[in-house]
Amino acid sequence: MSNSSTNESLNDLQRFWNRKAKTFPRYDPSEASYEAGVLALAKAKGAVWRDLVVLDVGCGTGIYALRLAQEAKSVVGVDLSPGMLAVLKEDALSLGLNNLTIIESDWLGAPLEGPFDLVFCSMCPALSQEGGLDKVLAQKKAQVVYLGWNGLYRSMVLEECYAQYQIPPKALDAAPKTRAFLTERGIAFEAYPVEGTWRVRYSLELLLDSVLQNLSSCGVEPDPEEIKVKLARFREADGQYLEEADYKIQLLLWRNP
After folding, report:
1. Which pLDDT score, from 0 to 100, does residue 7 have?
2. What pLDDT is attached to residue 6?
3. I need a surface site. Which of 48, 109, 150, 166 has the fewest CB within 10 A?
4. Is beta strand 53-57 parallel, antiparallel or unpaired with respect to 74-79?
5. Is residue 36 packed enough to be buried (19+ CB in 10 Å), middle (13-18) or exposed (0-12)?
6. What's residue 3's pLDDT?
7. Closest listed residue to residue 150, CA positions, set 195, 112, 183, 197
8. How far apart are CA 250 and CA 253, in angstroms?
9. Other C-beta atoms within 10 Å of 247: how many?
10. Are strands 241-255 and 190-202 parallel, antiparallel or unpaired?
């Protein structure tokens, strides 16, 4: 691929995630939050980051980086999207955290001064690129915590739209592919299920934008008014809209013996 084609692809990805930042989850201090549960599981299975140096690959709005930074010596977060990182910086400021370093870059091009005691990777599409997981291994000093799709994401909102526009199911196989990658290299790992149902409430404007962006990424550009009609049945009594989504994710943990 030429440099111009690569740059155009990265610009497209940046625009996609900048738009996604409007509806992407942000830091939630509750210990009942999904992110708190994930980190509690990782810690229970032996992951350690207290007083250590951590790398968060594809840190997004900082839903994990901000939690990790409250215990770690320092955290470096890498993400392509300035829109996502603006949210992270805002929340880091409100929390008074000064041990976070943010690198706005694609993963393969990110300049890093590793290796890191812990590399944390949650649902990061960049790792599916050639060389993506190899770079994770190169940056690992001791341990990696990885989360990836393991076969299921079923949004009640999107399911109807996919059926109408004949959009085939997406291959949600990041975790199986990562297991195969590690097995081929003789790297021992542990695997743990992370499964449940997300319930997120939106304004009509934000849910509509999220659905339209998702459909656009599948090559479909529907009439927004038509989608609004479909969304009506997800309206709650207070005027907010509820999206429920079942998911199956796998947490992989590998570390030095």
Report:
1. 62
2. 60
3. 166
4. parallel
5. middle
6. 53
7. 195
8. 10
9. 18
10. antiparallel
Tokens linked to 152 = 């299921």
* Length reported for the chain: 257
Question: Which amino acid, 194?
Answer: V
Q: How far apart are the first and last CA of the chain?
A: 39
In Å, what is the CA distance from 142 to each residue of 24, 35, 115, 121, 178? 30, 22, 9, 14, 18
* pLDDT < 70 stretches in the chain: 1-8, 257
Q: For residues 148 and 74, what is the distance between their CA atoms, to the nearest angstrom? A: 24
Phi, psi for residue 238 in degrees, rounded to 5: -90, 5
The 3-class SS string of 93-119 reads HHHCCCCEEEEECCCCCCCCCCCEEEE
Question: For residue 78, which amino acid is it?
Answer: V
Query: What CATH number matches the domain at 3-154+169-199+248-255, 3.30.70.330, 3.20.20.190, 1.10.10.10, 3.40.50.150?
Result: 3.40.50.150
The amino acid present at 30, given as its one-letter code, is S
Match 């997300």 to its residue by tokens.
198
Q: Using the structure block, give the residue that is written with the tokens 């370093």.
A: 101
Position 45, amino acid: K
Q: Can you give the pLDDT at residue 8?
A: 65
Q: What whole-number distance in Å separates Cα of residue 64 and Cα of residue 88?
A: 10
